[in-house]
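[recover] target loaded
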């Protein structure tokens, strides 16, 4: 009963797929994370962290990519939407008497341990038919349920698959990266990907989480992150590109963000990752590289946010004062 309820409720809230995964001791993930220094405190043995857990419900939120010319990342819009949808699902399940709780677990590692999906050279996991354009949410299930039937040998899984408000019984295969493919390696602006995989500390998104650098300011192509490897990945070639709505475009208007009006944009992508003037700081880099809004950028030198003032000083020195000296 709980399986059917979760699937139908998740579908109504906008999720594309639901997988009931077995618990796992993710020792390989723990060793890898500790080596990289990116553990983030997530448990490697979920059964110890959550002693009453029977399974983990993995909720997949699929989204469409935007045109490559857009500076707005659809990932963070999807991530914010999936976060709120997962909270609503948890509340609905509890109200109906089911024993569940939201969890912060290494979702990708758990999925791979269950034979679900494939991790590419860029470190991102793909699940057919959505490619890497997914957001994962997890719920701990503290009562018996049916596990999804997933092969742990060929990454072929036979499940009740939910997509576009239809439940399809079928077999889906998520193959490894195509033989000889170097698309993400060639596209990465930071040189973070090689045949050996991702050097996460060179990844632009990782660097952004720990402080911006001049290199990032010059190479960043989308707000809040980087889409380069996903834009060229052949696993995403089946996906139809969309244009952001007019409301989203207005929210991320460069001049609007330079003026400090970030409320609408923060509501779209989430407030937790956009504090301390982050969107204004990034808008400064885009505007400076375009040679626009010098006056607005100079006004940002008086911002209450230190990182905005630093970005403005960098932009003026790098792009505007240098032009005057030529």
């Amino acid at each position: 009963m709980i399986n059917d309820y979760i699937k139908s409720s998740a579908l109504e809230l906008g999720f594309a797929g639901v997988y009931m995964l077995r618990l796992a001791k993710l020792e390989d993930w723990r060793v890898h994370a500790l080596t990289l220094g990116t553990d983030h405190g997530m448990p490697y043995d979920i059964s110890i962290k959550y002693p009453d857990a029977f399974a983990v419900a993995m909720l997949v939120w699929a989204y469409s990519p935007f045109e490559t010319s857009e500076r707005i990342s659809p990932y963070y819009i999807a991530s914010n939407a999936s976060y709120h949808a997962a909270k609503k699902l948890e509340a609905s399940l509890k109200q109906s008497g089911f024993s569940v709780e939201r969890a912060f677990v290494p979702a990708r590692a758990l999925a791979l341990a269950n034979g679900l999906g494939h991790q590419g050279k860029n470190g991102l996991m793909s699940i057919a038919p959505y490619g890497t354009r997914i957001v994962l949410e997890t719920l701990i299930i503290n009562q018996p349920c049916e596990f999804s039937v997933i092969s742990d040998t060929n990454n072929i899984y036979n499940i009740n698959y939910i997509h576009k408000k239809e439940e399809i019984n079928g077999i889906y295969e998520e193959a490894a990266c195509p033989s000889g493919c170097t698309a993400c390696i060639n596209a990465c602006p930071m040189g973070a990907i090689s045949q050996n995989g991702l050097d996460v500390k060179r990844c632009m998104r990782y660097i952004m989480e720990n402080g911006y650098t001049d290199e990032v300011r010059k190479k960043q192509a989308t707000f809040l992150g980087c889409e380069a490897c996903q834009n060229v990945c052949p696993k995403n070639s089946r996906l139809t590109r969309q244009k952001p709505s007019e409301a989203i475009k207005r929210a991320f208007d460069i001049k609007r963000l330079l003026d400090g009006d970030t409320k609408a944009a923060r509501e779209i992508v989430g407030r937790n990752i956009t504090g301390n003037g982050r969107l204004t700081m990034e808008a400064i880099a885009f505007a400076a590289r375009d040679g626009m809004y010098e006056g607005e950028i100079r006004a940002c030198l008086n911002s209450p946010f230190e990182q905005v003032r630093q970005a403005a000083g960098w932009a003026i020195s790098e792009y505007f004062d240098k032009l005057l000296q030529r």
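[recover] notes: The longest helix spans residues 74-95.
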